[in-house]
Amino acid sequence: MNSLRGRLFAILLTATGVIWLSAVAWIYSNTHRELEHVLDTRLQEAARMVNSLVGSANMTVAMAALPGPQAEALGYERQLSCQIWSFDGRLMARSSGTPHGRLTEVPSGFSDRIVDGEPWRVYTVANETAGIHIMVGDRLGLRDRLVSELIKGLLAPALLIAPLLGLLIWISLGRGLRPLRAMAHDVGTRDADDMSPVDAAHAPAEVKPLAQALNGLFAKVETARRHEREVTAFAAHELRTPLAGLKTQAQIAMATEDMAVRQGALQRIVLSVDRTTRLVRQLLALAKLDANGAAPAREALQAGALFDEITDSAPGTAQQVSISLDPALRSVTIQASRELLTLALRNLHENAVQHSPAGGRIVWRATASGHGIAIEDEGPGIPEDEMALVTQRFFRGRHKSAIGTGLGLAIADAAARRLGAALRLSNRADRSGLRAEIEIGP
Amino acid sequence: MRILVVEDDPILADGLAVGLGLAGMTVDRVETCADARAALATSTFDAMVLDLMLPDGSGLDVLGEMRRRGDRTPILLLTAMDDTPDRVRGLDSGADDYLGKPFDLDELSARVRAIARRGNGRAAPCLTACGVVLDPASLSATLNGAPLSLSRREFAVLSALMERPGIVLSKPEIEDRLYGWQEEIESNAVEVHIHHLRAKIGRDTIETVRGLGYRIRATS
């Protein structure tokens, strides 16, 4: 059943029914027992009474056997029957409506017998003085009728009340579930970009976890959207700014008469085109990383080969930078996706080149664990307060380079994450410079 | 006309400095909000070109601070985000104009001239005093209808004086309009320019107020 209300209704109704039936069963057995006891006592008393009458009045048994009015037993009248038998087996007397057959063979006390096809309960008193057995009995059928009448009396109103109770439960459930409906209505009718939290403070305790979970989700969606907006804004800024620079420089080149100014403007146009080309390449790399395809296949990669490939294809720079590979790293084998690891290392390497001073040295080393690659440069490093921010997209700190896009470290970080590796950035302890490590498990 | 350009992109900032320079403006460049604050604290500018997204914060913050402390320097915002809500927010924060990247250099120059002019309480595009008419847009000048040939510096000195006829400008104030921070100020350069100007437009038009500076004769 998919309706919470329907399910609760069924559960409550079943539970109520079971409890009711148990109560009826309990009342039935209890009443039955009590009734047996009361009726047995009555049998006992009646027998003793007849016994004392016979004994004290010294009444002849024949008198006692005088037949009373012969009325057939109707309803609960004439419940009790009495027989007096002599010890030698003669029926001395019997009350009206009593069967002719001997009620019991038991000489004294209680006994259950079938007489004339009917079950009887009989109490016998033996009067030794008079030499008689006094037997008082009643039909068990009457007793059962008494109990069943009682139970019927209990069940009849219950059957009448049951539909009413069902209705009440149904309505109460509706009222009880109102906060849920209200929340559903609130969430259902809101605008697509309305991420305001639902009212969790005033929600009932049972609905509160749902409200809080919803609010948590809203907050996450809002954060993701804000992040997306920021990235879009940054991307717009980073793409349009070089375009504005290009256009301005081009207009200067057209407007100026001064050859030196024109030459400068044209040089800046070339620089700007290079930078924009790089930016586009990096944006595409990021988009590819974001697309989150299937987990990339791992293969055994030689660190030395990666170094050769990346340093050979790296764009040249104006200032001379010496690039070297720690011999210990050359033979290190790394299990990783070639594409992702190359992307991460290339961006780290380019970052190192861009920030290197003239004559600076860049060294690729093995990490302490032997399962990663570290690239060290002799640039200015990263101010500690910017360390956490540099892997954000488009973040360009105080030590930014002219050709930087603010994406290189973000790409290296994203690629490392997809590799299941960690990008660790730290300022070198021995001198100014940055150490960027990509640590990959064995 | 002295302009502060706040832009962190080196190529665009260079383009703005050179481009606005070609339009006869003296340009000072800074790259960060902090440097912009420092520049505003030490110098006065006729207008400011402010990028919104700067390395150490938003240009809107600088703009808000300036307006709160009563700085009325005309400001043109430059930004990559030129959606209508962004424009509205920029203008409502106290900016005088707004230009989305990329832009046309001539349009930028014209808009900067316009906000600077309005900042000086002037609606007419040309400066007029004593028969001299200066057109800042074309950097051309006439005297009694006849073309007048002025160097870039002479034009700058004369337009600084003509912006407020009758008001005395001291020598440092005139130098401020002429030179950016990077430029070396030659001693007695202002005197030389004034001397040349007097030769071209007449001795009486520019008056020397002893110990204070120079002014344009108020009556035409």
TrEMBL record, chain B:
Keyword DNA-binding recorded: yes
Main location as per UniProt: cytoplasm
Residues annotated with 4-aspartylphosphate modification: 51
Residue ranges of domain OmpR/PhoB-type in the record: 124-218
One family name in Pfam for this protein: Trans_reg_C
DNA-binding residues: 124-218
Domain of life: Bacteria
Subcellular location: Cytoplasm
Protein name as annotated: Response regulator transcription factor
Protein source organism: Bosea rubneri
Organismal lineage: Bacteria, Pseudomonadati, Pseudomonadota, Alphaproteobacteria, Hyphomicrobiales
